Amino acid sequence: MTRLSVNLNKIALIRNSRGSNYPDLVEVAKDCERFGAQGVTVHPRPDERHCKFSDLQPLKNIVTTELNIEGFPNDHFMQEIIKVKPHQCTLVPDDPTQMTSDHGWDTVTHFDFLKERINELKKNGIRVSLFIDPVAKLIEGVAKTGADRIEYYTGPYAKNYSSDPTAAIREIKETCEIAISNGLGINAGHDLNLENLKYLKENLPRLDEVSIGHALICDAIYLGLENTIRLYRNRLQ
Ligand code: PXP
Asked: Tens of pLDDT along 30-67?
């Protein structure tokens, strides 16, 4: 089974634009689960322009599926994550000024840093996933850090999918065996949508989870949140 985790950063962005608590992230998270989401994801960035660090504990208190928190593991992020203890933490190599995540970790250069941060999270009972590009030596590096899963950065897959799906999936397909043989679970995320999700799933039968935000929330404007979550779940059957 591939779980659908709904990323609520866009909902937080709308909320923040008016300074009130509407839409309420907690209520939207509960509704996503009621409509079939199998997880909730948030990505608090240092400037808190989307989800805020103060959103994390209220979400942890109500999420009954899985809470996945993404972010760059600086000292502040680590403290907050260890306080909240989400089910999963996805480490992302974002620089504070980045608009959105656009590459995975260099697990060779940053090996010692990652190993230390992952060890700290795992001591606290948190499953750890590393955001990664589909490159063999980087995935081999993940296995040595002690992380539990990889999350494929699917931006390039999504960009190339419409012109050449076979070429778009090639590197992901070729490297997933390395992850599996090293005992790593496989997640995927970024720019996934109703058009490209089914093909990703068909080519990655061992896909554990996708986290989807932007396209899903945009689709919900036209189709409604309940219907949209149902359609994304259908693509993962
Ligand atoms: N995975 C990571 C690590 C991300 O940073 C994001 C965006 O916050 C996503 C997945 C979801 O991407 P999208 O919003 O394009 O679905």
From this structure: 999 999 999 999 999 989 989 999 999 999 999 999 99
Judge whether 190 counts as a catalytic residue.
Answer: yes
**Annotated catalytic residue within 66, 70, 151, 209:** 70
Q: Distance between CA 231 and CA 219 in Å, rounded?
A: 10
For residue range 118-149, what is the model confidence (pLDDT) as tens digits?
999 999 999 999 999 999 999 999 999 999 99
| Helical axes 165-181 vs 136-145, angle rounded to 10° | 30
Residue 101's SS3 state is: coil
User: Which ligand 1 atom minimizes the distance to the CA of 131?
Assistant: 3
- CATH node for 3-235: 3.20.20.70
User: Is the Cβ atom of 101 under 6 angstroms away from ligand 1?
Assistant: yes
For the chain, domain boundaries:
3-235
Which residue is closest in CA terms to ligand 1's atom 8? 43
